[in-house]
Design a protein that fits this description.
The chain is 74% helix and 0% strand. It has 38 residues and is mostly helical. It has one domain. It is elongated and about 50 Å long. The chain starts with 9 loop residues before the first helix and ends with a helix.
C-alpha cells in the first residue's frame, strides 16, 4: 500500500491550512453577526 503514500511539501500543507483557516474565519464572521442581529 506504499503506492498511496505521496510526498507532500510542508509549504503546500501550510498554505492549504492557511487558506482553510482564512475561509473558516470569513464564514464565521458573518455567521456571528447574523446570530447577534437575531
Amino acid at each position: 500500500m506504499s503506492g498511496l503514500v505521496v510526498h507532500v511539501e510542508p509549504r503546500s500543507v501550510i498554505a492549504v491550512l492557511g487558506l482553510a483557516a482564512d475561509a473558516v474565519r470569513e464564514l464565521s464572521r458573518p455567521a456571528r453577526r447574523w446570530a447577534f442581529r437575531r
